[in-house]
## 1
Amino acid sequence: MPDHDAERDSDVAEDDEPTRGESEMERLDRNWEDLLQELRVSQTGVQLLTGFLLTLPFQQRFGQLDDRSRDVYLATVCCAITATASLIAPVAVHRMLFRQHAREAMVAAGHWCAVAGLAMLGLSVCGVVNVILTLVVSDTAGFIASGVSAVLYVLAWLVLPLLLREHSREITP
């Protein structure tokens, strides 16, 4: 009779993650492709947001911003530019390491660039919400709306994935 536990153990990597029966290089290739797909989605959004932010000073009402709102705007632009650089960095890493047999390093660097880029993108959106609502409604509305936005991003981009990761560990055989 076959030892099913031994078969199952052979399909589990050192970090207790199922291996899907793929080689280390196949796993790294799959991880790289998954990362690139995620970046394609986020790059478009961050590039549009950054472009929007860079045009704001040329709008007529921009001069109506008080010093605090202008500081929030400048911090938001810095976050958006950092997000853009972080989310595009894996492409540059790939280009510099192409054919260097460094897929593991590319996946690791790409992962951390994506995490940093998403964090900066979330901060950028909160900053935009603050600037727009401050200008259109009031300082209080801008503060509340950006705070609510921050809570939503933390819940959707951090808490939910962590809960799902924990739940998936509980149901994995």
## 2
Amino acid sequence: MVKEERALSEKQKMFIQAIVCDGLKQGEAYKKCFGNVKFPDSRASYLLKKTSILKYYNSLSQEMERQAVQRGVWTRVEATRALRAVLEQAEKEIERTGILTRASVMAIIKSVKELNKMYGFYVPQNGNADNEVVFLDESNID
């Protein structure tokens, strides 16, 4: 027996719109639409697993992407693609040469750092968002 999909509620639509259109994180969008509840991230994750919600999310995401491309707007998807291309190119260079150059390592570090910032995984330590990697020569390593 095929289970019939129910129409989305207005709150469910607002939840998806808050993620896709407003750029809120899932938990933030859930609190905005459903109020201040315990475990908003878990509840948001559960909601996004529902087929009807996921279909609406994908549909709205595609529409927003299409509109952005028409307007010539730089999108998160395009930024992600560009950063992933830099990351993959640096990894290929290391594999090809077998040498860790400063340029390739910095390309990897900066790409990962930017991708993490875009997706909310980056939390600066001690309030400093410009943590740097310092290369030492072997004489400085104990």
